[in-house]
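Limitations

Structures in this collection are predictions, not experimental determinations, and the ligand pose is part of the prediction. Treat each record accordingly. The example that follows, with NAP as the small molecule, is included so readers can see exactly what is and is not provided: the inputs are given verbatim, and the output is the predicted complex.
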Amino acid sequence: MKSLVILGSTGSIGRQTLDVVRAFPDEFKITGLAAGGNTTLLARQVQEFHPEFISIGEPNDKTFTAAISGRLSGKKPELVCMEEMVAQTGVDAVVVATTGVAGILPTLTAIDAGKEIVLANKEVLVMAGRIVMEKARVKGVPILPMDSEHSAVWQCLWGENASGDTASNVSRLILTASGGPFHGYSKEELTGVTREDALHHPTWKMGKKITIDSATLFNKGIEIIEAHWLFGIPYSDIDVIIHPESIIHSMVEFRDGSIKAQLGSPDMRIPIQLALTYPRRLPNPGLPHLDFNTVKSLSFKNPDVDKFPCLRLAREAGLRGGTFPAAVSAADEIAVDLFLAGKIGFTDIPALLEKVLDSHKGIAVPGLDDIMEADAWARRQTFNLAAVSAC
Ligand SMILES: NC(=O)c1ccc[n+]([C@@H]2O[C@H](COP(=O)([O-])OP(=O)(O)OC[C@H]3O[C@@H](n4cnc5c(N)ncnc54)[C@H](OP(=O)(O)O)[C@@H]3O)[C@@H](O)[C@H]2O)c1
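Predicted complex:
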């Protein structure tokens, strides 16, 4: 049995990971679950999966501890911090499905402890890609992608030489994007869209932050950065194409002009299951199979970075490197929060990101402290810039 820790078990990816675990009771054992503040759901998950350890976003807060203890009967799990949980002996793999910066330290701790990493959290590689990948290489720890696009690229690369040097078979990665709910909107129409419009994704069911990031195309921009670190492919060889049907999850073009694509229904449990059971592909009656009779067309279009500048800004941050990706990622987290709170408009998100990047004094080869400092600086800067423009 593979023993798992799931960080972010109460979120969209965390819940879908537990769906997969539920389907294979003889394959997986849950050793630890970590949540932010949703103690009601965490308590239900504890009753069902009986982890030895739990972690909640503010473990020293007595209200949280009392809230969860009151909801549990039987043997209670030990309350620890995420770093302590991931390093426990007996843990085989750590699913990192928290949002934002919270996933970085536990991921680095898990790599240090030699645990396999199953990665959904984008910020881990966007902010600290060089440090994480270097540590994983030194420790010989695999980083398995859960995100549908990176899972697709990963599968297309199986059996291929993707070494990143001239011997490589790969000529480029092509990440597909649904285009989000505002694909085809004019610039004027984009200024008037609401929070509810933006939260209505046409093909995927996801957490709020990533849903807004899909609408601005920031999500695709940070996926370029993730792909760069995961597969060691230069930014110039990573393209994005809009594919509204979300049937092709991404592609790899090879030097002889041949292209491999990975297809399937848009259901995150498919890449989640593969990352957990790799290299096996297990039958799961709960997962949808693609019926080609229902696929009317597969269409493709170049993204419009003039209308959706977040895609360009994230790519630029990746190219500038150092602390720039951390700064743009933190700025986006704050800008999305402000948009969801009704404090700024949809098109203010890229405007804020651009200003934060313009004013960031980057560090070319940062340590973890520099990255955390850039993150904190960009959050303050985004708040300040948003407050100034509101005056
Ligand atoms: N959803 C998708 O389809 C999808 C696809 C690919 C990649 N991703 C990436 O996967 C990550 C998770 O996405 P999601 O959509 O699942 O997000 P989500 O639904 O918002 O869930 C986030 C999870 O992180 C937990 N969390 C937040 N802050 C925490 C903290 N300080 N300590 C511990 N746990 C904390 C939340 O706990 P509470 O709920 O208890 O507050 C929740 O369990 C993101 O980086 C996203 O970009 C998501």
